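Q: what sequence does this backbone want?
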């Protein structure tokens, strides 16, 4: 499907374009969110990416073997370009205003926290504490959007082992992030 749908889309087939969008949207969102932790920015960049694909489809590479990888690369570049644009727009006063907390509700505090660089850094540290197998399972599940049975087949593990590794990894990540929330709220 990858090659045929891609070539059909390049030739103007709207159904093939929609199929590519539907097949890859969730994985793109997961990947984009891992880069920015800003849901709206991620969604906007994905929408712009697909608009650009449709508008420039006749000039796109017809020899794409791995559509997902091609889209991931395009999205990463788009997000980086958006970051650069936002950095240029913001003045020092705006940056200070972004971090100013004025009687924020608990929900607002959590939303701000989710988007903070500190959280991303703590998540990176927590991910580094996972075993190689746990990290591999997390990446396959959340960034490649594979099912547990597909992960088991890809890693030569039993489905039960995949579930156990995923459970332990998520428990560790939740605990690390919970401790960070407690630290920030104190």
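A:
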């Amino acid at each position: 499907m990858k090659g045929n749908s891609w070539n059909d889309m390049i030739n103007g087939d709207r159904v093939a374009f929609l199929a590519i969008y539907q097949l890859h949207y969730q994985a793109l969102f997961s990947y984009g969110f891992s880069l920015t932790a800003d849901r709206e920015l991620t969604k906007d960049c994905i929408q712009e990416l697909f608009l650009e694909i449709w508008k420039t489809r006749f000039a796109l590479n017809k020899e794409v073997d791995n559509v997902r990888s091609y889209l991931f690369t395009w999205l990463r570049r788009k997000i980086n370009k958006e970051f650069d644009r936002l950095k240029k727009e913001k003045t020092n006063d705006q940056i200070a205003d972004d971090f100013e907390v004025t009687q924020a509700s608990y929900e607002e505090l959590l939303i701000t926290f989710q988007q903070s660089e500190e959280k991303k850094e703590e998540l990176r540290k927590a991910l580094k504490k996972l075993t190689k197998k746990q990290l591999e399972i997390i990446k396959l599940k959340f960034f490649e959007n594979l099912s547990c049975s597909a992960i088991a087949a890809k890693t030569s593990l039993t489905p039960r082992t995949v579930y156990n590794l995923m459970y332990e990894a998520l428990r560790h990540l939740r605990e690390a992030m919970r401790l960070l929330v407690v630290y920030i709220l104190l």
